[in-house]
Amino acid sequence: QQTMSQLIVSAMTVIGILVMMIVISPLLALIAVLTVPLSILVTAQIAKRSKTHFVSQWKSTGALNSHVEEAYTGHELVTVFGRSREVEARFEEQNEALYQASYRAQFISGLIMPAIMFLGNLNFVAIAVLGGMRVASGTMSLGDVQAFIQYSRQFTQPLTQIGAMVNLMQSGVASAERVFAVLDEDEEEPDRADAPTPANSRGLVEFSDVSFSYSAEKPLIENLSLVAEPGQMVAIVGPTGAGKTTLVNLILRFYELDGGKILLDGVDIAEMSRDDLRSRIGMVLQDAWLFGGTIRDNIAYGRPDATEEEIQAAARISYVDRFVHSLPDGYDTVIDEEGSNISAGEKQLITIARAFISQPSILILDEATSSVDTRTELLVQHATAVLRSDRTSFVIAHRLSTIRDADLIVVMEDGRIVEKGSHENLLLTRGAYFRLYNSQFVGAGA
Ligand SMILES: Nc1ncnc2c1ncn2[C@@H]1O[C@H](COP(=O)(O)OP(=O)(O)O)[C@@H](O)[C@H]1O
Ligand SMILES: [Mg+2]
């Protein structure tokens, strides 16, 4: 805003002075005016060059900031793995890149002011010489030339100011371009206004000819079909990177399909609203996600209007009750951001209580026991077994002993289903599941 009023004052001054100069001497006025296009040309040339350096200055700033943030939040990992030196070296490198870019940007854009001042001085000399000649020949009075020189000095002043503003704007434009790049990213497809809701959710899930890939060059899931009947437990097994997590993320509609459909109780999930869809699904993932808050808040997160009795009931079923009683503050114990005051297994039990309270019709367990100590693992298994009853569940487990009694076992490899059936049938087939099962058995025995 200040810039705006400054701009108006400058414009008025320029016009006023121009009129006075033309009144005194049109020829000298012409020379003075000539500096304007010259200054603009020079400014534009320099600005073009400095902008590329401003762009890389902001890019380096971004890279440096994210590196610092990563190193800060992952400080313990960095230390444990002895990577402090690498992190420091990368910081040095990025800091140097930022220094170079800033230096060049500042240096080049700093040329604008001196260049314009130089042009102004040239103009001054031209007017002084020409004016002097006219005084000598008697066509102009000395006073007129003196007045004209005063005016022309003031005339170039606003131009210098504009030059300074252009300098500032180059940096602004460069950083605005980065902001717009983020804004231009594809948005989530909006939910349909008339989104249908399956009346009473029974938990029937059908994958029909589903294809999906994260990037066009690397196809992942292709023409996958699968039916999970209401109340069934579907186990998904397979090597790391087979696409197990991706498959369950598709049910939650974190990504749009490239082909085919996923139906929930007969309704295409692409037509349902995301909130409605996700409110029907409960999730327990490998890394328990808790927020900074009390244990009570973390359980009630599944359903904010849950009563104290419901919270207690969910906590009992999921064995949270047991360890909470040994904490001095009980349910009011605040879990800090890092969650370092309770164990990984206990955190997992809290996320199971959270899933209980929301009473979803579909349950997703993605390697829920894999980062848990063996003592808590049994509790997690018991709790999830209760949680699974009466609802459709998708269980991803790398320990096959935990999914023996699944209604359907799906073996995935490279985004494809290579085998499916019950534990007994798959063992009889002596295929991929048989090999996987035996390798774990041997591994456990050794
Ligand atoms: N967000 C993502 N963006 C791009 N590629 C991904 C993403 N998540 C997973 N992938 C890739 O997709 C493949 C399947 O991953 P994932 O579904 O996590 O396998 P799994 O859970 O069976 O170990 C892997 O090759 C993985 O690198
Ligand atoms: Mg996974």
Could you please describe the fold and organization of this structure?
This protein is of the alpha/beta class and 446 residues long. It has two domains: 2-183, ABC transporter transmembrane region fold (Up-down Bundle), CATH 1.20.1560; 205-445, P-loop containing nucleotide triphosphate hydrolases (Rossmann fold), CATH 3.40.50. The chain has helices at residues 2-24, 26-73, 75-80, 84-109, 112-137, 142-183, 244-251, 274-279, 295-300, 308-317, 320-325, 344-357, 374-388, 423-429, 432-445, and strands at residues 205-212, 221-228, 233-237, 259-264, 267-268, 281-284, 293-294, 334-335, 362-366, 392-396, 408-413, 416-421. A hairpin with a 2-residue loop joins strand 11 (408-413) and strand 12. The longest helix has 48 residues, at 26-73. The structure holds adenosine-5'-diphosphate and magnesium ion. Magnesium ion (MG) binds at residues 244-245, 366.
